[in-house]
Structure formats: C-alpha cells, structure tokens
Amino acid sequence: FSRKFLRQIFAMNEGAYEAAAAAISKTYVQQGKDARRTHEKHIQALLQQHKLPDEGWSDLRIQLLLQELSLMDSNNFPENVGVGEREARIASSMVAQRHYRLGHGIGRSGDITAVQPKAAGSSLIARLTNSMILDLLRHSGVYMVKQCVLIPVATGMAMLLVLLTLKQKRPEAKYVLWPRIDQKSCFKCMVSAGLIPVVIENILEGDELRTDVRAVEDHIQRLGAENVVCVLTTTSCFAPRALDRLPEVGQICKNYEVPHIINNAYGVQSTKCMHFVQEAHRIGRVDAFVQSTDKNFMVPVGGAVVASSSEAFIKDVAQIYPGRASGSPSLDVFITLLSLGQKRYRQLCISRKENYKYLREKLAGVAAKHGERVLNTPNNPISVGVTLSSLPAEVNWTEFGSMLFIKNVSGTRVVAPGCEKTIGPHTFHNWGAHHNGYPCAYITAAAAIGMKKEEVDTFASRLDKVFIKFKKKYSPSMELNSECPPGVPEFSTSAEENDLEENSGLEPGSHATQPKQLEDSNSCIQETDQQSSDTEID
How far apart are alpha carbons 360 and 374 in whole angstroms? Predict the structure, then answer.
C-alpha cells in the first residue's frame, strides 16, 4: 500500500487539526493528534505487513479502522447513486450497525477472493483476515502453508468445495478413501460431491482407535491410484478415536501420487494436531487442510478456512465458489484476531492444554467413585472418554445425556454399542463409536479453547450427581465406591458446586475397572445439547 493510500484512509488531515487549534489550545490538539497517530502507526503496520499483531488491539482502535474501511464501500459514499440490483441497501439501522455498514459482501461471481470495485473496504478486510489467519497457522506449527482462504460456510461445506475442486482435476476418479469417523457431515460432504466413499475401519489398540495405514495402501492398489480422488483424514475428533496417522498416510499419498486432504476442524488450537499436519507436509503429501472458524477462533458459526502449501490450489478452491459471499464470517474473525493478537491466542491454547489435563484428572476422580475409568487415548489431545460399563446393559442411554442437559451441561456425547445408521449408500454398524465392535458404552467431553477451569469443576460435580441419580433409578441395590483411592476427591451431592475440593492429580486410569461387553442394546449416540450429529461439522 502506498503512503498516499494510507493517508486517504484517515479522515483527520493537517488542515482539520489546524482549524481545531484555532478553537481550543494548540497543546490539547497536539495531544489528540499524537494519540491518533499512535493508532495510525499500528494500522499502517497491519496494512503493510499483513501479519497478526503480537499484542491485541483495543476496541477503540479496531472500531477506528472499521469505520475508515467502511467509508471505502460505495454504499457509504455521500454522493453515491446506486442504480443496480445490489447496492447494499440495509433497511434496519440495527442490522447496519451490526455489520459496520458493510453490505456488499466479498468476492465476485468468478472468484471469492476477487476485489469488488464497489466494496474496497470489505475486500480489504477479507484480504487482511486471510493474511492474519495464514500468519497464525504458521505460528501454530504448520510452517509449510503458503496460502489460505476463509470461506463463509461451515466445515462440511468447505470440505465439499475442496472435493469438487479435486474432482475437476481428476475427472476419471470417483473414490474417496476415508478412515472412519462417525459424524454425518464428514460422510455427507463426499456423497454430496457425487463421489463414492470407501470407509476404512479403524484398528482398536487398547482403548484407542487408530488408522489402519495398511488398509489405506491396499485400497489404493486395489482400486487404482488414478481412480482415487483423495484420501480424507482427520485430526480433531471425539475420543476414543485418535487423530489419524497423518505422516504415514501422507507418505503413501506421495508415493502413489494421490491427493491428501485433512479435516482439521478444531485442530488449530492443539499443538499436537498442528505438529502432525506439518509432519505430513514435510515427509509426505498434503493438498489442503480445513478448519472451523468458530471452533478455533471463538466466533459465531458460519466460516471455515481452507489452507494449503500450494497457492494455485487455494486459487482453484476460491474460483469454484459460485457468486459473491457473505463478509460476516471474515469480519468476525478480523475483529477477533485483532482483539486477541498472537500472544493472547497462544496463551489461550496453552490454557486449553492445561485444562485438558485437569479435565482428565477430575473425570478420573468421578469415574473411580462409580466403578468406571477414563479411557486411555494418548493420541487424542482434546477429547476425553469415560466408560459407562458398570451400568446395566438394558438402560435407556439417551436418558443419561438428557439428565446432564437438564443440569445445563452441553457438549458431551453418550455412546452405546448396537446402533445402526444408514447415510446415503452406506450402513454404519455401532454408529457413534467409530468402530464396529467397540467393547463398552462411554461418555465424552472436550477441553476446547476458551474453556475455564471452573467449568471443569462444575461439570465434574454435575456428572457425579447424574451418575448417582441414574444408578438409583436403574440399579437401586448398587452401592457407590465410598472409599475413593488416595488423592481422588469425594463429590458430595449436597455440597454447593462452587465449594468443590481441588483435585490432587490422580493419574488417568487409576483404580480402573475393565469395560464389559454390552449386548442387545439398540440405543444410539446422545449429545447433551439435544442436537443430532448432523450439526457436528468436524
């Protein structure tokens, strides 16, 4: 950006300051001028460097920039006359304020990253947002990423666009090799793209479900590499499934010249997930990895980031999006990243990692009290599973999740063996467990970015109460393990939840009971936010 351009952004010029000095003390005007120049200095650095600032900005500075950028869109020109069918006319003043009077959206009909002549400010926000995300991805561990684009759709739809891009490049191919993860959107994006999913069952290693790397290579050989659109792997997921063996799969894709796409839905917040994404780039092949904006950057649902080590691939994805697009997801991320800065975002990721360890410790205490244990899943850095093997096989599993929801606990998942789910052409056995024969029922919880330690304490207390209530209903003769192992806190159902004892650090899995096989159960997965897994776009 030229100095002339930067000067044009800011409203107050030298003449205005001189006029103000004629009305009040020149000293006071100079103080105001110096304060504004401090803001302008930071804004200039952002416009020139296209990097996420180390320190977060104040709301005042962000609002100053947004107001100036808003004035660059034609609908805010004082003398503008709009005679087209789309002129960013906004009927409600509340809606206009919510969007900072940015109404043109982003992109043009042929490219979502193209600059709109009528919306220079909105286009600049989109460009800067993509640049800041790229900088953040590199600082998060994926050093080989070269370009990214924020698309105003959730992760499942973004995956669909990526698959359609690959389909154009490989018109004769029709298969997608997919290590199983039991979330509908992951599967539906392949079916919606007109492709044939090839489900690769996971391998049970102890409690943990891992990628069957040999099966991936065998399917490529059997189907023919030229007939495979891509291998679609996953990082972040619900326990007991682990993140896929990305480096090994990446090597196979490189050897057979098969594209490799990674579903990194909420993996940016995890250094472990990002490390394996980087390793897959370094020793193998990765064409793109996709992540959610709401799950990683704490903004409203509606955006996903497609990133790649190939600038050309991102350009192709941007051009496959039909028409203009909403600028709201870009604006949300733009404001949020500027507010956080690199340092605060990294601190949030560190806190998340600490909360994950704390969550495992607290759940181990509750589990031990009720004859259960925390599942040993060292390759899942976000989600934690707890067995439900001490409960009778004939219980209503959905009721357990409903009890938690009534106690204002959202986000957990109760999974019991025996459910079948048909999606498109494929029927999944033991749906929800990511495996045809997982040996026990379990409940999962996640330590995601933004979670507070106090929330872990409250969740552990409420889970303990649900266990007690559930067992009284279905197993009235069952007694609790009143003598908790040393170091495990006892949870009192009569105590106030804000008086919980501090956990002393029980190692996950201590005083574990082995899971038992549950038979003849037709119950399915239960999410405590009362939504079906259609809405989980991971």
Answer: 7
What is the rounded distance in angstroms from the CA atom of residue 533 to the CA atom of residue 226?
33
Hey, how many other C-beta atoms are within 10 angstroms of the C-beta on 228? 24
Query: How would you classify the pairing of strands 208-210 and 304-308?
Result: unpaired
Q: Which residue has the tokens 């919510």?
A: 98
The gap between the terminal CA atoms of the chain, to the nearest Å, is 38
Answer yes or no: are the C-beta atoms of 22 and 15 closer than 8 Å: no
- Nearest CA-CA partner of 251 in 233, 238, 239: 233
SS3 182: coil
Cβ burial of 95 (10 Å; 0-12, 13-18, 19+) is: exposed
Which pLDDT value is given to residue 291? 98
The tokens for 23 are 């009305």
Cis preceding linkage at 240, omega within 30: yes
**What pLDDT score was predicted for residue 389?**
87
If you average pLDDT over residues 17-21, what whole number do you get?
78
Report which secondary-structure segment, H or E, holds 228: strand 228-234
Q: How confident is the model at residue 479 (pLDDT cuts 50, 70, 90)?
A: low
H or E element, residue 335: helix 328-369
Q: What pLDDT score was predicted for residue 527?
A: 59
Contact 104, 122 (CB under 8 A): yes
Q: Which residues contact 386 (CB under 8 A, 6 or more apart)?
A: 363, 366, 367, 372, 373, 374, 375, 442, 443, 444, 445
Longest dimension (CA), the chain: 88
The string of DSSP codes covering 67-87 is: HHHHTTBGGG-TT----SS--
What's the pLDDT tens digit per position in 160-200?
999 999 999 999 999 999 999 999 999 999 999 999 999 99
Sheet-wide strand order for 383-387: 383-387, 442-446, 413-415, 526-527
